[in-house]
Amino acid sequence: MGVRLMVVDDHRLLAEALASALKLRGHRVLAAAAPTGGAAELVITRAPEVCLLGTSAPAEPGVFDPVVRIKRERPQVAVLVLGPVPSPRGIAAAFAAGASGYVRHDERIEGVERAIMKARAGEAVVAPQLLQGAFSELLNPAAQPDDEGQRLLQMLTPREVEVLVRVADGEDTRLIAAGMGIAPSTARTHVQRVLMKLGVGSRLEAAALAARTGLLDRAGPLDNAAPPRRDPSPQ
What we know:
- By secondary structure, the protein is an alpha/beta fold.
- It has 12 helices and 6 strands.
- Strands 2-1-3-4-5-6 form a 6-stranded parallel β-sheet, with helices on both faces.
- Helix 2 packs parallel to helix 3 (about 65-75), helix 8 crosses helix 10 and helix 8 (about 160-170) packs across helix 11 (about 205-215).
- It holds the Pfam family GerE.
- Keywords: DNA-binding, Transcription, Transcription regulation.
- This is Response regulator transcription factor.
């Protein structure tokens, strides 16, 4: 029997793609929406059985505020968080807010569906490997997040650090190019180099990694960066 669902993510394409996949598997998707800031109001109004809530930064303060409100006003709704591999703090924050589970956003659709069914049944949902990793990090903290942030920061040139900060601020290629005084093609090249050096496949993953490791705090605000120069290349 299908589940009445809502899919909410700040990235509408991701929300709609997941919603389409779940519809094909026989579930009733009441809405696929963005951004997550309006999730609580929508869920309270529609009252699904399960809400899939996507986040790129599970350790950020306030990211699970919608979950708190949903569980306060619609306690029967199971909220399932979809996100990157989190720190133990991220998993703890999700459950503390009232979430029924945490699923990695690179999970196969079959895994997401199993999590949905368990959440509707009132079970807590978290992959064993996530729990194992969380306990391992808590019991044996090999390195503090800032240590990793410093290591990543040293891999990037000052120019690439500025590009990463702008990516994390949500700027697209056009805005990056305008803000740095370079051609859009040069900005795209910088972005690709940043992704390659960080070992990630998308801007979203780069921003999440930078936030999680404290790299952005170490990089400082753009105001302190060197003034943008005009790129003389015709690229």
